[in-house]
Specification:
The structure is a homodimer of 396-residue chains. Chain A has 396 residues and is an alpha/beta fold. In chain A, a hairpin with a 2-residue loop joins strand 20 and strand 21. The radius of gyration of chain A is 32 Å and the shape is elongated. Chains A and B meet through helix 2, strand 15, helix 3 and helix 7 of A and helix 2, strand 15, helix 3 and helix 7 of B.
């Protein structure tokens, strides 16, 4: 049987998910915007700082009053507080706090540590200060109408601080992709339920939900069904009702009997295929009421790997997250692979750039995958590699 | 005035926050554990897989029945579903699905693609299969009682999947540090409120809340007070009532008048100091009813930088997050610094490893900080640097 190359299926999923790239932004409060991505540039509605203020605790003076060192009467006291201070009386100083409004008539602030105040209410200033000293002009950080933050920015605390300083309380950010996750298989029970004979706990739902959240998707439905077409179709309808933009399924797409996903969606035009890869050969894509459905095989390692390979890169692009890191490492020991299949082995990175395989190639080894920190990507045409060979690895 | 070196204050804050390192873990559902850190190793309560099952869709056989190629009567059909299949009748095959329980008596699975089923209910198997082929033994991934995940692990989707597969629904994780954030200053209004003369929007609260959340802290109180000791003390009491383990304040600790934090906490033993750094000279630490209080200056850039320098590294350690990245870069243009103060200039990294300064050294430039992507760390004893000089930068 001719198997489809991985890259071809990557292209299909990319095409299927293309509509997710043009989505309406979402307006969120600044307090909830940490880590979100700005959908549009933000302009400051006000000058920053909004008014002329003191950079220091000290004395506001008119610099022309002290062409040489001398003393001035302290005629006012200006806290950093609401209100407009009285104009500075010529030939006097006003005690002023950092951030307080500079009175009309003053043009410089002398830091308190460069002054001596005396009991008679005067302040002695031992050096000469030029106009503008320690004065923060209105708009000296940014003028009203200027760009505060650019579109595409991932918001961190300093960006939220700038928004708050500009009095902005909500922003338009890229909306999260709304994802539904459906596990299929009559053998599945919810994690934590007691296992009868022939039953296993569903780990695919947990894995796909967490992996999607980890790349900024929003889970709108998480479901699990037995191998029953009506039950599966009802869950697909529920996903649509929950406003899912993308449905991920696991299980039910191989060539056996009781393949509920294939049997439900193939008559509706699903493309069901077998790829030249291990684990994760069976793969499918479909549309259900116009919503893209990406169908992964049911083996736990296969479904996790399939998400990582086919869907995660697109969700990262949409969320403007960096790509998963790939590093060339050196094999610690020889390995064999299946020629004609691209193989993803679980591995553990060692100090010094080497990597060892972990737990064998079988697709049920969830604990070994959990213990791995890299995937070793063995190309289709490779059947064996000696110790010391360079291999491409994906950081987990 | 002798100013305290930055490193000395770092040590004080580290000592003050030492009790935060030994905290009781928190039990959370697996579904809410993404990104959390395991407080204890997790042991699998069951074998993984829990029972002997088929790795393929195909036919379960007794290998001794086919010492050479031949055909067998298909005597049973075993789906992946609850229940125990009947024992395999000697000399027959059972059609079996991936993940289905292997019947007693069978010891190998022949993949469906290596077989031909005929209309008379028999399956022809063209090659010889040894015992164990395509059989997943119970416990072959992990045995009951073995370590599934180690303590200290940051949980990602594959770890949650392994927990689910083992039927585990909740885990003990390191608890988040409970933080209260209090902004002080009579000039402050909530972001979005209209600004009267002398007023500015509080950006420190937004910044500290987001920065603390970004290193996995939990915000239990966010407050803002005018320069009034009773009001400030009431907010401190509220933070205690909200079970804060750490209080962060901004403003009110310099040498001016109306310094509400200093005036409230210094009589209770606060250490109020001026550091040899810019921005962020004034700094204080205190305890309030036994809870550590770290007090930052009120200038927006100063308070953000102070958090980054003094508190963030400790919260990162507690949350087992990696340290903030520091990179040596090359100055794009000459700069001057204040000798005797460690200076943190805002900068923008350029391609090719160079860095340019952005917006000047003043501590009110929130928009410039938002536009920066690095801090340039200029040592205390440096007064000027030529273009091309190497500087240490912190990634923002």
């Amino acid at each position: 049987m001719a198997r489809t190359p991985v890259a071809e299926h990557e292209g299909r999923v990319r095409a299927l998910l293309a509509p997710l790239r043009t989505r309406a932004p979402e307006t969120v409060p600044v307090a909830a915007a940490l880590g979100r991505v700005l959908a549009a540039p933000v302009v400051s509605p006000i000058d920053l700082p909004p008014f002329r203020n003191s950079q220091m605790d000290g004395y506001a003076i008119r610099s022309a009053d002290l062409p040489e060192p001398g003393s001035l009467l302290i005629a006012a006291d200006i806290p950093a507080a609401p209100g407009t201070p009285s104009p500075l009386v010529a030939g006097t100083a006003a005690r002023i706090m950092t951030g307080a409004s500079i009175p009309t008539g003053a043009d410089a602030v002398v830091p308190v540590e460069d002054t001596v105040a005396s009991d008679d209410g005067r302040v002695t200033i031992a050096s000469v200060w030029s106009a503008g000293s320690y004065v923060r002009e209105a708009g000296s950080d940014l003028r009203a109408g200027e760009d505060l933050l650019p579109a595409g920015l991932r918001l961190s605390s300093r960006h939220l601080a700038a928004l708050s300083a500009a009095g902005i309380t909500s922003v338009d950010v890229e909306s999260r992709v709304r994802v539904a996750v459906i596990s299929t298989g009559s053998e599945l029970v919810a994690p934590g339920e007691s296992l009868g004979p022939g039953q296993i706990a569903d780990s695919n739902g947990t894995a796909l939900v967490a992996a999607a959240r980890d790349v900024a998707a929003q889970i709108v439905l998480e479901g699990r069904v037995v191998d029953d077409r009506d039950a599966f179709e009802a869950l697909l309808e529920a996903a649509i009702a929950a406003d899912a933009e993308l449905v991920l399924t696991s299980g039910g797409i191989s060539q056996g009997a009781y393949e509920v996903v294939r049997e439900t969606l193939e008559p509706q035009g699903a493309l069901v295929d077998v790829l030249a890869m291990q684990p994760g050969g069976p793969q499918a894509i479909a549309s259900f009421r116009g919503i893209p459905v990406v169908c992964f095989p049911g083996n736990p390692v296969s479904s996790q790997l399939s998400f990582l390979l086919f869907v995660e890169p697109l969700l990262r692009e949409i969320a403007r997250l960096p790509d998963r890191i790939r590093v060339t490492r050196v094999l610690d020991a020889p390995l064999t692979s299946v020629e004609g299949k691209r193989q993803f082995l679980r591995g553990r990175s060692l100090p010094d750039g080497r990597v060892e395989t972990l737990g064998g190639p079988s697709s049920h080894l969830v604990a070994a995958l959990a213990a791995a920190d890299v995937l070793i990507d063995i190309p289709e045409d490779v059947a064996e590699l000696p110790a010391g060979a360079s291999v491409e690895t994906w950081e987990l």
